[in-house]
């Protein structure tokens, strides 16, 4: 069982994830928010990762697995709930029901571009890292065009916000900007709050970086897993925190609003980074002893 940061949702069970997201959207936006599409999308997501979706091969990446996908979708639903609770109904950035559903779908599928197409069996999925956001936009545009949200299909382009060197256009409307801020924040928070985040960096992310020439050999940015871990606190404070604060307009505050007090995501992230800093200061990285398990196969709804 792989649990979310609240320790209440089993991320290995798509039905449990669907139930948690559905409950939030139902309570906040009412019964017409688009429940059948959410259910179908989570079913299709599980099928895609295990290689049962037309045109896609089974996921072969370790870090960017099904757990991260559903974890991001759940985080997005919670951020949306907090944003709705903080925003006046007549505010320009107020997110309506169909845009909320769109945001959840984009969060669930934001890394779908890491999955190889059925003509790409010669590749490793991690080799697609530099272009996976654009591939995800293409996939989701087509997916949405065949859904009740067809009129919003062009907004699949919001997936690009999860690319760390991408900046939001100044002419975005307020709703799209709000969605983009939440989407980027959901991606970051869901990763950093993972109970096995540190071990996943060491064992899984390093492996993916090696596949596209960023790690694994002398002279590369991350010649070994220890170097990756040593750079992680600075990567968090120097890039990810700043990105949430500046690019995403402090959107993590909506997660705190959702929980109405202590925020499990904030607590988990702080615990992970503080523990890593302690291990680095005392040269005890060997104390990272959890054995992360990637999630690829899960029962569909």
Describe this protein's structure.
Helix content is 53%, strand content 0%. Helix 4 (97-108) runs parallel beside helix 6 and helix 8 (225-247) runs antiparallel to helix 10 (264-281). The chain is built from 10 helices and no strands. 44% of the residues are buried. It has helices spanning 14-29, 35-49, 66-86, 97-108, 132-145, 174-192, 197-211, 225-247, 253-259, 264-281. It has one domain (14-287): Catalytic domain of cyclic nucleotide phosphodiesterase 4b2b. With 301 residues, the protein is mainly α.
Sum up the structure in keywords.
single chain; 301 residues; mainly alpha; Catalytic domain of cyclic nucleotide phosphodiesterase 4b2b; 10 helices; globular
Describe the structure concisely for a colleague.
With 301 residues, this protein is mostly helical. The chain has helices at residues 14-29, 35-49, 66-86, 97-108, 132-145, 174-192, 197-211, 225-247, 253-259, 264-281.
Fraction in beta strands: under 5%
Task: Name the CATH superfamily assignment.
Answer: 3'5'-cyclic nucleotide phosphodiesterase, catalytic domain
CATH 2nd-level architecture: Orthogonal Bundle
Detail the poorly predicted runs: none
Q: What is the percent of helical residues?
A: 40-55%
Layout of helices and strands:
Blueprint: H1 14-29, H2 35-49, H3 66-86, H4 97-108, H5 132-145, H6 174-192, H7 197-211, H8 225-247, H9 253-259, H10 264-281
Helix pairs in contact: 1-2, 1-3, 2-4, 3-4, 3-6, 3-9, 4-6, 7-8, 8-10
């Amino acid at each position: 069982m792989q649990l979310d940061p609240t320790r209440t949702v089993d991320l290995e069970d798509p039905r449990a994830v669907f139930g948690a997201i559905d409950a939030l959207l139902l309570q906040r936006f009412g019964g017409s928010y688009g429940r059948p599409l959410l259910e179908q999308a989570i079913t299709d997501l599980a099928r895609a990762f295990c290689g049962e979706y037309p045109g896609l091969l089974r996921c072969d990446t370790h870090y960017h697995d099904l757990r991260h996908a559903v974890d991001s979708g759940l985080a997005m639903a919670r951020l949306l709930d907090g944003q709705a609770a903080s925003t006046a109904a007549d505010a320009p950035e107020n997110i309506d029901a169909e845009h909320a559903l769109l945001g959840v779908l984009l969060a669930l599928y934001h890394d779908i571009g890491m999955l190889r197409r059925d003509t790409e069996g010669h590749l490793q999925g991690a080799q697609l890292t530099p272009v996976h956001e654009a591939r995800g936009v293409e996939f989701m545009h087509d997916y949405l065009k065949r859904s009740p949200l067809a009129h919003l299909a062009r907004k699949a382009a919001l997936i690009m916000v999860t690319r760390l060197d991408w900046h939001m256009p100044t002419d975005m409307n307020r709703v799209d900007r709000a969605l983009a801020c939440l989407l980027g924040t959901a991606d970051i928070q869901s990763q950093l709050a993972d109970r096995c985040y540190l071990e996943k960096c060491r064992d899984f992310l390093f492996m993916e970086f090696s596949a596209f020439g960023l790690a694994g050999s002398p002279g590369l940015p991350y010649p070994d897993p220890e170097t990756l871990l040593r750079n992680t606190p600075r990567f968090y404070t120097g890039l990810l925190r700043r990105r949430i604060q500046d690019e995403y307009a402090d959107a993590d505050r909506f997660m705190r609003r959702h929980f109405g007090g202590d925020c499990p995501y904030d607590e988990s992230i702080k615990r992970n980074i503080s523990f890593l800093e302690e291990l680095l200061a005392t040269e005890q990285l060997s104390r990272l002893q959890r054995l992360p398990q990637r999630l690829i196969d899960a029962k569909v709804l």
